[in-house]
Specification:
By secondary structure, the chain is of the alpha/beta class. The chain folds into two domains: 2-74, 60s Ribosomal Protein L30, Chain: A (2-Layer Sandwich), CATH 3.30.1330.30; 82-243, Alpha/beta knot, CATH 3.40.1280. It is 37% helix and 20% strand. It has nine helices and eleven strands. The chain is elongated. The protein starts with a strand and ends with a helix.
């Protein structure tokens, strides 16, 4: 069965995957067995769908219906291919501006970032297949509908996206406090991809290593960090300021 952006029941989810629906995440009851479930697991592995094994109580909170131990979130949007998106952006003659989100997991922060990205003319947002915040009804609502307007790509690893950008002549700027340079030292008039990190740990060290430049926001108060969606807005509007 299907309910807005949610499907429940093993057979229904198998049929949805086979029909080519974009499944954002599947929640599976721990210890689930049976031949039909094995068929579903095989499909999940083949399609590399993001999965969590959870207690039955979690599934009962997700839906009041007979879920048979499996609930899936359907993405309300279609995802773009990163190589095609970069190529189309460059060929259109604009100066590319992309956002890479490294393990950002809060749905409302994600929605707020998508909204700001739309307002600042970002050409695409890239997220990782596993560990990233889902695109669900809350994301769409917080984005004020911008989730339908800004192209979003999923990649196996954010590193892949960094290499794609660099190979296409797009500089990669990491937003991190682990630098002496501020965002006002960066040249955003160049083709640019900005990386924002997770709410609690920031950008992964392995991603920081391969970024072309690191930049931070000057913080003048006692609290030494900003909400990630606010920080992202500051970076994007500095890019807008420089490009106007």
């Amino acid at each position: 069965m299907e309910n807005n952006y949610q499907i429940f029941g093993i057979r229904a989810i198998i049929e949805a995957i086979q029909a080519g629906k974009t499944i954002d995440k599947i929640f599976i009851q721990k210890g689930l067995k049976g031949s039909l479930f094995q068929e579903l697991e095989t499909l999940i592995r083949k399609e590399q769908i993001n999965t969590s094994y959870v207690p039955v109580e979690k599934l009962n909170r997700l839906t009041k219906s007979n879920h048979q131990g499996v609930v899936a979130n359907i993405s309300p949007i279609e995802f773009h291919d990163i190589e095609n998106l970069i190529l189309q952006t460059i060929e259109s003659g604009v100066t590319p501006l992309f956002l890479l989100l490294d393990q950002l997991s809060d749905v409302r922060n994600f929605g707020a970032i998508i909204r700001t990205a739309e307002c600042t003319g970002v050409h695409g947002i890239i997220i990782q297949k596993k560990g990233a915040a889902p695109i669900n009804a809350d994301t769409v609502k917080t984005s004020a509908g911008a989730a339908f307007k800004v192209p979003i790509c999923k990649v196996d690893h954010i590193k892949d996206a960094v290499f794609h950008m660099q190979a296409s002549g797009i500089q990669v700027v990491a937003a991190t406090e682990k630098t002496n340079d501020t965002l006002y030292d960066a040249n955003f008039t160049l083709p640019t991809a900005i990386i924002m990190g997770a709410e609690d740990v920031g950008i992964s060290p392995s991603i920081l290593k391969i970024a072309d430049q690191k930049a931070k926001l000057p913080l003048l108060g006692e609290i030494q960090s900003l909400n990630v969606s606010v920080a992202c807005g500051a970076f994007l509007y500095e890019a807008v300021r420089q490009r106007l």
